[in-house]
């Protein structure tokens, strides 16, 4: 298992109604190098002392375990975001420290062994696009059947969510300055103008 620290994700976010799916799908496909169907399971963990941290006025760092359910089993990825950089530092896009590692075997038990407790679980189903150093995810969230823990297909009217972000954690160096990644996500924002509003968000 290897972890990467001191690296960042640059991202923009948007959402739209199902009636706009075809037009947005066509526009993104036109400006992407490849597209795949995506279906992922994401389990969110929080520290066992999360409530204590909140009572003390600090927001606990959540740990997320993600697994792709289409294609061959590539195992789990554990990742965690820290608080996004301030809007003053990066007004155009969300820039947040991002640590990630691949886990062989039971990632859920591993997360619990790290002192985390399971908070929630979601499934995301939709499309995954690659554009240079970016990945564009377009998906609907599926609810979970309590008795089987299996996903329930999303209602046709469920909002679609879009995340345009760097595919891998980037380090802010002379060779790969964060400004380069910000420009790349802003290009997508410009391409989608008039059809999809992509914006920065603090999450």
Description:
With 203 residues, the chain is of the alpha+beta class. It has one domain (8-191): Hypothetical Protein Pfu-838710-001. 18% of the residues lie in helices and 40% in strands. Strands 1-5-4-3-2-6-7-9 form an eight-stranded antiparallel β-barrel. A hairpin with a 6-residue loop joins strand 7 and strand 8 (151-152). The longest helix has 14 residues, at 178-191. The radius of gyration is 17 Å and the shape is globular. It starts with 7 loop residues before the first strand and ends in a 12-residue tail after the last helix. Residues 1-5 have low confidence and may be disordered.
CATH class category name: Mainly Beta
Query: Element order, helices and strands?
Result: EHEHEEEHEEEEH
Rg, Å, rounded: 17 Å
Just name the CATH architecture.
Beta Barrel
Structural class, judged by helices and strands? alpha+beta
Number of strands: 9
**Looking at CATH, which topology would you report?**
Hypothetical Protein Pfu-838710-001
- Binned, the helix content reads 10-25%
List the strand order in the largest sheet: 1-5-4-3-2-6-7-9
Strand content: 35-45%
Low-confidence stretches: 1-5
Described by strand count, sense and barrel closure, the largest sheet is: 8 strands, antiparallel, barrel
**N-end to C-end Cα span:** 27 Å
The averaged pLDDT comes out at: 91
Number of helices: 4
Number of domains: 1
| Shape designation | globular
InterPro entries: Mediator_Med18
Protein name: Mediator of RNA polymerase II transcription subunit 18
Subcellular location: Nucleus
GO molecular function: transcription coregulator activity
